[in-house]
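User: quick one, fold this
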Amino acid sequence: MSTTKVSTPASQAKPVTAPDIQARKNGEKITCMTAYDYATGTIVDQSGMDLVLVGDSLAMVVLGHEDTLSVTMDEMIHHVRATSRGVKRALLVADMPFMSYATVDDALRNAGRFISEGRAKAVKLEGGVSVVPQIEAIVAAGVPVMAHVGLTPQHVARFGGFKAQGKSVEAAKALLEDAQAVEAAGAFCVVLEAIPVEVAQLITDALTIPTIGIGAGNVTDGQILVYHDLLGMFDRFTPKFVRQYGQQGREAVHYMEQYCKDVRATRFPGDKNTIYMTDDVAAQVRKIKVKKRK
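Assistant:
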């Protein structure tokens, strides 16, 4: 009898839930990636990723803005809904954009839209102690919340740019307080962005929920990266914490250049790309008289 193990396709595997992610604390590392539409959602999900985030980073990598502040709720929902059609197994999380959770009422209304309209399974919002009321209200309404502390891009104006956080003792204490506050509020995990590894270790050890790092070293319970950064889609500044696994942007330009050359040289389309009639029908078509416009 054969004992060969057959892997289950991502589309047929049991969907990942927020409790599943929470139960991975101190267990197998959690893998997370951003996605922004049906195509990227399908690719990321088929890779076996545990968690897919439709990040507000789409403002920069999809819509071309300089930061994440310009993307709207309607734009986010449009992309979350598209991504949800491609994600079959991973836990799909929607990133709440700038000012969409300024008050508890705003947070509840917009989190609800992400679930009912966008078909997300959870939401993410940035901040620590200051957003505890919003997290508590969203969780009480039955929506899982992923928290986010450290470098929070929606606060880039206050930080004076995309700068690492928690680099002093007092700043480290403040980040720990933020992380513990969002845990107490009911978040099922927390993203730690652009902080020293020592602070990430301190927070990870202190919490009973998983920490997901991006620029926080390898001591967290999981990692997340931006899809376009991992694949090298753009020739632009790459943060220190990014590892590029490919140069698909350059490869795509190369293929497009080849396409242009083939079209101009009439090498494309070729016979294999062309639809032909049968000889007898083609002969009759050639006899059709065409009246040319004067």
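User: anything notable?
Assistant: The chain is about 40% helix and 15% strand.
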